Amino acid sequence: MSADRRKRLFRGSSREESTKPESGLGLLDTIAKGMAVKSRMLLAGAAVGVLFAASAVAGQNDRPPAPATAAAAATLLAPDAVFDGRDGIVHRGWKVLVRGDQIAAVGPDIVAPADAQMITLPGSTLLPGLIDAHVHLFLHPYNEASWNDQVLKESLALRTVRAAANARATLMAGFTTVRDLGTEGAGYADVGLKAAIAQGIVPGPRVLVATRALVATGSYGPKGFDPGFDVPQGAEEGDGEALVAAARRQIGRGADVIKLYADYRWGAGEPSRPTFSIAEMRAVVDAAQAAGRQVAAHASTIEGMRRATLAGVDTIEHGNDGTLEIFALMKAHGTVFCPTLAATDAIERYRGWRGGSPEPAAIVAKRASFAAALKAGVTLCVGGDTGVFSHGDNAREITLMAAWGMPPAAVLMAATSGNAAALGIADRVGAIGQGMVADLVAVQGDPVRDPAVLRSVTLVMQGGVVVRRP
Ligand SMILES: [Zn+2]
Asked: For residue 54, what is the DSSP state?
């Protein structure tokens, strides 16, 4: 991470004594407060707690939820082992003490206070709540409906209700924080969904939202209609100075992060080509940075990745054509790479690939790009482009990153504290440590030995509240 970027992510605040990262965080405060309010409400009244727990676990579990009580303000979780997201090690015999919405203690010698509720998790490893850095809660798998049909034919109400169900599936799968990189034609509905989750109306992860995303005029879709029609697009078009105005408008209406498309295919069957100039993207980065927001760039081509990197974006998504040279450039600039392996895997399977040899060209290219990224040592974040495939199967990206050559412990670090650092929220989530938000997940067995166990979590705690139990 370059000194410049670190300064940006951990910009000295007006509170000089604080080293808290600031970028894109007002919203996290809001969410954290919302969750804290929710947990206080839950702990204050058993009836309310039962109601929430019942709605949260309905359909997941036939057993009635254990009633929350006022005395349960402290909870001692006793798994077989703890992966704290800080040192990459599975610590056998460690326990975690939660009080209210925060982690009070973690380690081998924790004495439970007399008022603590005990949750034993035999055979389990406890991890920080997982983070998916690239989801689209307003999309569902393309083998259910094409992207074009989702954008053009599904009503906003249908898409929003589905997004709420997707948010719930995400949380129940142990992903307690996500970055949603664009509603794909559903306008600003993500801002409302985020508010509904924060207010405890529907269960879901903490969400950083991008709202509409930015594309160069004419570059995006849906395409393929009489050019006389103004077909609604999956993102907001803008160029030059208008692009900065669009970014500021999105921030003003609730965007926590700006998403832009540095390249795209201009016509059906064409390869991707660059869209925005470096100057256009740099102007967006400057405007976003001034507002304390990060910028994520979709880029698959070498030129698109190069321009986005030089423009100063925080993360680059996809990187399908990535080479050792371009990843070295990203590393030098402190740009984080989000490879989205699972999206490529899913799309090729929708086209008929069964996972064997010979591998389709897109998979061969993706493997080569990912190998180059690992070799270059660029910082990797974990985000599957979830929505292209089912929400709730977010761990698919983790298992693919491990299967394609990244050491499992490193993948788990990236999916917890690494993602938290990349998104500028590492002071609150992504690790199990004293004072951190009590977002925790349990899995059966050892996730470093077998990352596939992450695809079936047994317990999920969010902000100190158990939302899924074994
Ligand atoms: Zn995406």
From this structure: H
Instruction: Give me Rg for the CA atoms of the chain.
Output: 21
Return the axis-axis angle of helices 302-311 and 278-290, rounded to nearest 10°: 40
Cα dist from 88 to 35, 83, 338, 408, 447, whole Å: 28, 7, 20, 9, 11
What would the pLDDT profile of 281-315 be if each residue is shown by its tens digit? Answer: 999 999 999 999 999 999 999 999 999 999 999 99
CA of 433 to the centre of ligand 1 (A): 31
pTM across the whole model: 0.86
> What φ, ψ does residue 48 adopt, rounded to 5°?
-65, -40
204: tokens are 């879901």
Q: Kindly report the length of the chain.
A: 470
Domain ranges within the chain, ordered by starting residue: 3-59+130-422
CA of 415 to the centre of ligand 1 (A): 17
CA angle at 336 for the pair 335 and 339, rounded to the nearest 5°: 130
| Rounded Cα–Cα distance for residues 438 and 56 (Å) | 17
For ligand 1, the distance from its centroid to the CA atom of residue 341, given in whole angstroms, is 11
> What is the whole-number distance in angstroms between the Cα of residue 308 and the centre of ligand 1?
16
- CA of residue 140 to ligand 1 center, whole Å: 12
Distance from residue 342's CA to the centre of ligand 1 (Å): 11
Q: What topology is assigned to 3-59+130-422 in CATH?
A: TIM Barrel (3.20.20)
Segment holding 209, helix H or strand E: strand 206-209
Rounded Cα gap, residues 382 and 398, in angstroms: 7
Convert the pLDDT of each residue in 31-43 to its tens digit: 444 444 444 333 3
Cα gap 347→342, rounded to integer Å: 9
What's the 71 CA to ligand 1 centre distance in angstroms? 43
Q: Strands 294-299 and 315-318, how do they pair?
A: parallel
Ligand 1 center to 181 CA (angstroms): 6
Strand pairing partners for 207? 178
- For residue range 315-367, list pLDDT tens digits in order: 999 999 999 999 999 999 999 999 999 999 999 999 999 999 999 999 999 99
* 385 Cα to the center of ligand 1, angstroms: 5
Q: Where are the alpha helices (DSSP H) in 173-301?
A: 189-198, 240-252, 278-290
Distance 32 CA to ligand 1 centre (A): 25
Q: Cα of 360 to ligand 1 centre, how many Å?
A: 21
- Euclidean distance between the first and the last CA atom of the chain, given in angstroms as a whole number: 39
Task: Tell me, in angstroms, the distance from the centre of ligand 1 to residue 257's CA.
Answer: 13
| Contact (Cβ atoms closer than 8 angstroms) between residue 282 and residue 243 | no
Which of helix, strand or coil describes residue 71? Answer: helix
